């Protein structure tokens, strides 16, 4: 049975999408596909009269950290933008730092009654567009990819990756982690077919993951109970320091794809950009999700119809949660009023929400 709520329609009960909506500098399309028992991905687009904010939060260990970011990251960004009088690289860093501190404080207060909080974390990808400048902050392996004309004025569109993946499957990141921990011969362990930090996690930078950032906790009985094969550590083994940068947008920059690694595990940067270039704007995020699901189904030698019939939880064996936001760059400022578009917290528990200025305390 298809699920439809106004514009938010899909032929798959574990998908949600917004075909097309305007932001300050063009249009955007938004889609999410759920694979986990609880949706661990979150995403949002927030417009103010002077900027457009984009957020993709790919949780792990549960939905708590990504949901927390969905409620607090833009609030923190907006607060620091207001205090500092504009967007800057330092403002982005402050918002990441504040969100991390708030979440870890909550975990520190709650972990004895809610032990699972210690191993909950999230990747965090944030973009802010102000006039002709795109600011980016990233932790983890969500990714922003630009589609642009190779030569201004010509039709050939190429992909340009704007962020780096903080994942130890990449040799550069493995070397970075090893260099940060020269006295720990087991900082990286190859287990279950992949390199993992302390044999546990692949991403090297996150929000949350208290159990990997608090050396004292690594010596507690609960840590040993939860992770019997892991060894205690003397300093944090992963960080919350984002990669932050900015890029001046030019007329030949056409769109940016913001997506969790659930998309990039299935589609290359080039394939995703080619699909956006060759198809209509309306529903393009859903089209990308569908392409990723088709690829995931092919790898398991199953049909897309069979994949759609697989219930949440079981579906995680086939693909990850997927969040895709395609931001078109029309280079004409429209001055949208305050509104924030969030995907549902979970496909079966909450309807999509469209917040006004009251979104912020």
Automatic annotation (TrEMBL):
Q: EC no.? A: 3.1.3.16
Q: Which family does it belong to?
A: Belongs to the PP2C family.
What cofactor does this one take? Answer: Mg(2+); Mn(2+)
Give any Pfam family that matches: PP2C
Q: What residues does the PPM-type phosphatase domain cover?
A: 27-329
The UniProt keywords, alphabetically, are: Hydrolase, Magnesium, Manganese, Metal-binding, Protein phosphatase
- The superkingdom of the source organism is Eukaryota
**Which GO molecular-function terms appear in the entry?**
metal ion binding; protein serine/threonine phosphatase activity
Keyword Magnesium attributed: yes
What catalytic activity does the UniProt entry give for this protein? O-phospho-L-seryl-[protein] + H2O = L-seryl-[protein] + phosphate; O-phospho-L-threonyl-[protein] + H2O = L-threonyl-[protein] + phosphate
Query: Do you know which SMART domains this protein is assigned to?
Result: PP2Cc
Q: Does the keyword rRNA processing apply?
A: no
Q: Organism classification, top ranks?
A: Eukaryota, Viridiplantae, Streptophyta, Embryophyta, Tracheophyta
Q: Which PROSITE patterns match?
A: PPM_1, PPM_2
Protein's name in the database = protein-serine/threonine phosphatase
Instruction: Fetch the InterPro entries from UniProt.
Output: PP2C (IPR015655), PP2C_BS (IPR000222), PPM-type-like_dom_sf (IPR036457), PPM-type_phosphatase-like_dom (IPR001932)
